[in-house]
Amino acid sequence: MSTYAYPLLIKQILTAPLAHAPDQEIIHAEFMRYSYAGFAARIAQAAGALRALGAGAGSVVAVLDWDSHRYLESFFAVPMIGATLHTVNVRLSPEQVLYTINHAGDDLILCHVDFLPMLAEIADRIERPYRLVVLTDGDPLPEGLAHDGEYEALLAAAEPVTDFPDFDETIRATLFYTTGTTGDPKGVSYSQRQLVLHTMAVAAGLGPIPGGGLNRGDVYMPITPLFHVHGWGIPYVATMLGIKQVYPGRYEPARLLRLIADHGVTFSHCVPTILAMLLAAPGSEEVDLSRWKMIIGGSALPEGLARQALARGIDLHTGYGMSETCPFLTVADMMATRDPAAPVNLRTATGKPAPLVQIRVVDEDMRDLPPGGAVTGEIVARAPWLTEGYLKNPEGTEALWRGGWLHTGDVGYLDDTGTLRITDRLKDVIKTGGEWVSSLELENLASTVPGVTEAAAIGVPDAKWGERPVLFLAVSDGAETVESAIRSAFAEAVAAGALSKWAAPDRIVFLPSLPKTSVGKLDKKALRAEAIL
Q1: How far apart are CA 449 and CA 433, in angstroms?
Q2: Is residue 230 within 8 Å of 75, Cβ to Cβ?
Q3: What one-character-per-residue DSSP string does 321-356 give?
């Protein structure tokens, strides 16, 4: 009768760092700096402030902020009082933000002054009564703004919560919205149990790598927005490990590079376009990046970009997951790449499953396909932290979980070593002349040509062949020189048998920069519209 049934709750993540590293620092650019002990005290104050505003079990608390100490505090304070944290994608259109606020049923909104104009634009159409807390970095509050208080002032006045209760570990802890090519954004949620298990599995997967991975000697800075799948879940991992954390605020290249240099950042994660932006930024060459470990996700890591990063001393690897998977499923083999002679494609491979993850590659009838790459199929997954479904969307949930496995929508194969290699998204595979062509293969080849800074391949309708590939490029050198080199590279690949003759693109389109989605991925929907014009 005296046995304690230890629930897997967000509050438990704080136990180890407070015991082992209470004096370690958490930094928000030039705006805030405190210890883990101070962090725990601020969580208690924030929880008290939230409760004073009426938040508690069953409430939904939305956050619109840059990557800040406040956001990290919300990752803990909100679920620790039994409420749901809604991380709002501030890069969506005002109409999409309005949809997510209404669909989530937000009761309390924490909004940075920079996003107040957008909130004001949609405020009269928010369906549920809500309370508003304003977040600032020393900015003056707009005159005439009706709100329930400024964040720091509310924390200072709050009665801290000194004893966070136990409750059902399966209650919803977080909620965010993922956008697709069609339809409204879809709500993806996770329980406290799922987040704790994901945190432990990522730490177990990355921790044992000699000289690599993520460990207590690292300095962590996210370059993935915290609204995007909880910053890929790494802030929870970094906190559990008690390592120094640096939050950059706005993603400005000069600011990011300065923080890396000033604080000795050794571990980050981002999408390929952000890494390319940093490597090309003025002053980048003057910053020593030789101690920087990087996980690249969100979209495929082109081999050309990988070589640029390796030339700067960056130890980078591909990670794979999606909004619906919390997100980690696999990561490139970090043990194999300890060998300096390891080929680059080991780093760009989708990798091997994280602890507790099951991966299959199947045909349309859910039959397992043989390894080796002769045939490809859809990647399906199981893990104890995968989302149970889309909020208020049973049809979408059923499609996501058809056959009891989560369908990723990605196409690939398992090689003979058990390494997962993605060849495309189901929606991005190009079928031309009866042959399947991988858009990722075309992009990867283009990325190795000097002068190419961004590459994206899509299929466009063709009366004779069904579809034909079109290659979009952004370049640093003259377009004519790059186009000649690109066509030579494709011709050589076809002659060598590395590429089907059907795959070489007829059209190459040059743009100043390629369009991006709200989370920095290449926006192929926009490129398809551009190609058809």
Answers
A1: 27
A2: yes
A3: E-GGGSSEEEE--TTGGGSTT--HHHHHS-BEEPTT
Q: The whole model's pTM is what?
A: 0.86
Residue 302 has pLDDT above 80, yes or no: yes
In the structure, what pLDDT confidence band is assigned to residue 523 with cuts at 50, 70 and 90? Answer: confident
Neighbours of 385 (CB within 10 A): 25
Cβ proximity of 224 and 232 under 8 Å: yes
Q: Which residues contact residue 477 at a Cβ distance below 8 angstroms, ignoring those fewer than 6 apart?
A: 450, 451
- Compute the distance between CA of residue 221 and CA of residue 208 in angstroms, rounded to an integer: 20
471 contacts 505 by C-beta, under 8 angstroms? yes
362 φ/ψ angles, rounded to the nearest 5 degrees? -130, 160
DSSP-based three-state secondary structure for 179: coil
Q: How far apart are CA 522 and CA 95, in angstroms?
A: 22
- Measuring CA to CA, how many Å separate 499 from each of 275, 345, 390, 427? 28, 17, 39, 21
Strand pairing of 377-382 and 358-362?
antiparallel
For 129-142, the pLDDT digits (tens) are 999 999 999 888 88
Helix (H, G, I), strand (E, B) or coil at 172: strand
pLDDT confidence tier of residue 436, bands split at 50, 70 and 90: low
Radius of gyration of the chain from its Cα atoms, rounded to whole angstroms = 23
pLDDT in tens, 454-496: 888 888 887 777 778 889 998 887 778 888 888 998 888 888 8
Which residues are within 8 A (CB) of 455 and not within 5 positions of it... i.e. 6 or more apart? 302, 442, 443, 446, 447, 471, 472, 473, 474
* Ramachandran category for residue 432: left, alpha or beta (phi over 0 → left; psi -120 to 50 → alpha): beta
The one-letter amino acid at 60: V
Domains of the chain, each with CATH number or no CATH? 428-532 (3.30.300.30)
- The distance from CA 136 to its chain's CA centroid, rounded to whole angstroms, is 25
DSSP-based three-state secondary structure for 443: helix
By residue count, the chain amounts to 533
Element (H, E) at 402: none
Mind telling me the catalytic residues?
178, 324, 431, 436
φ, ψ of residue 87 in degrees (nearest 5): -90, 110
